[in-house]
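Retro notes
What went well: the complex prediction finally ran end to end.
Inputs used:
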Amino acid sequence: MIDMKTKIAGIELKNPIVLASGTSGYGFELNDFFDVSHFGAITLKALTINPRVGNKPERITELKNAMINAIGLANKGIKHFEESIIPKLQNIDTNIIANIAGGDIDEYANICDILNKQEKISMYELNVSCPNVHSNGVVFANDPDALYKLIEKCSKISAKPLIVKLPPDIFAIEKIVNICESAGASAISLINTVPAMDINIYKKKPILANNFGGLSGEAIKPIALRLVYLARKATTLPIIGGGGVNNAEDVVKFLMAGANAVSVGTLTLKDPNASYKLINELAILIEKLKANSVTEIIGSLELNQ
Ligand SMILES: Cc1cc2nc3c(=O)[nH]c(=O)nc-3n(C[C@H](O)[C@H](O)[C@H](O)COP(=O)(O)O)c2cc1C
């Protein structure tokens, strides 16, 4: 029997498969396909203080082995979340991670504060790819000072472990991870989508109404694996690694690169059952690799000399 358990910030996950934010709604929608409680954790879609309608359509375009989205953090705001969503999460028997977005530091901090009383939420994941309205729209992850202040403030307010979710387009992953750690992050999550665009040559226009979007799916996996490996070398914080996970082999790659848990996003949109099957397929693969547990695989990668 393979021991599938792992830990993020002292919290036990029954297995390392984590549903990625924005790709599985609030989790319970997937109960039509299977019992969503079997996942190690579920990351909810983005949450902001006020309702957001998001970007205009087209908001999604599909490529051969990837997709680009510009959903724009559409959600009905924190009040609706507390009143209508939290009650529906009560029967889910696994860790629930709230994904928090904001236009400034106070918005993130206020959401942490409001959600502290919600026992059903195990951890917070700060999406630091959001533009900071007080800094000409520069995203937090690309502004070391603002990033530090954001994490410092949230970690002081937060009653739950704070995961910082990083995008791939940052200038020096090691430095950014160190900033997250010294500011009080409990874990790192990476990667968010890769900034991208596609073009309709007949209209001479970008396909997405927002012009730019975020690339996800298989195509981004090699980028994500490298960043997870570099982040692992830079910190002892737990890491939720992911980006382009498509099968159990990919999960093992992220574990070997140093991830303590592995997020699955676009695969769930393509085929929710494929994400669910990963849990069993991973156990079979770990046995095939002659290991007894997930923790044995974590960080076992050896670079070529
Ligand atoms: C449609 C869509 C919506 C997403 N929404 C969010 C979000 O609200 N917050 C967030 O942190 N990441 C969001 N992401 C990023 C995913 O959580 C994940 O980090 C990224 O897609 C890479 O993983 P994947 O290749 O397995 O999809 C979204 C991704 C997609 C495809």
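What we learned: The chain has a mean pLDDT of 97.
What to try next: split runs per interface for comparison.
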